[in-house]
């Protein structure tokens, strides 16, 4: 099952205060990048944040699940938290801070 674009756009809009947000479609699902770092996956209309120790401390006792079969676990954010903009923005910021900078892209050979 793929995620609905309106849900992905809604979550991305909630996160815009965190910094430079990019929303991309990925195999019928969506990814959200903050300042070039993948921090969120929206899969089957469920919201997942990348697991970090700072995120675990911020959430308290997060539920973990796989966004798709065979993937590593991510934090599953309950739907009742989706409207808590300040909370989502803070989680996005602390998640991105703990992740490494994206690797520079190699130039394409022509």
Characterization of this structure:
The protein has 110 residues and is of the alpha+beta class. It has one domain: YgaC/TfoX-N like chaperone (Yope Regulator, Chain: A, 2-Layer Sandwich), CATH 3.30.1460. It has helices at 5-15, 53-59, 85-98; strands spanning 21-26, 29-34, 37-43, 46-49, 63-65, 74-77. Strands 1-2-3-4-6-5 form a 6-stranded antiparallel β-sheet. Helix 2 (53-59) packs antiparallel against helix 3 (85-98). It is globular. The N and C termini lie far apart (37 Å).
Class based on secondary structure composition and strand pairing = alpha+beta
Bin the strand percentage.
25-35%
The end-to-end span amounts to 37 Å
Q: Which CATH C-level class is it?
A: Alpha Beta
Rough shape? Answer: globular
Rg from alpha-carbon coordinates: 14 Å
**CATH third-tier fold name:** Yope Regulator, Chain: A
Secondary structure tally: strands: 6
- By CATH's scheme, which homologous superfamily applies? YgaC/TfoX-N like chaperone
């Amino acid at each position: 099952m793929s995620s609905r674009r309106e849900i992905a756009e809604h979550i991305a809009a909630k996160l815009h205060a965190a910094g430079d947000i990019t929303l991309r479609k990925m195999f019928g699902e969506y990814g959200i990048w903050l300042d070039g770092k993948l921090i969120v996956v929206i899969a089957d209309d469920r919201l997942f944040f990348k697991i970090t120790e700072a995120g675990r401390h911020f959430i308290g006792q997060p539920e973990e699940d796989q966004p798709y079969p065979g993937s590593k676990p991510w934090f599953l954010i309950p739907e009742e938290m989706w409207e808590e903009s300040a909370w989502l923005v803070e989680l996005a910021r602390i998640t991105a801070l703990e992740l490494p900078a994206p690797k520079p892209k190699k130039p394409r050979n022509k």
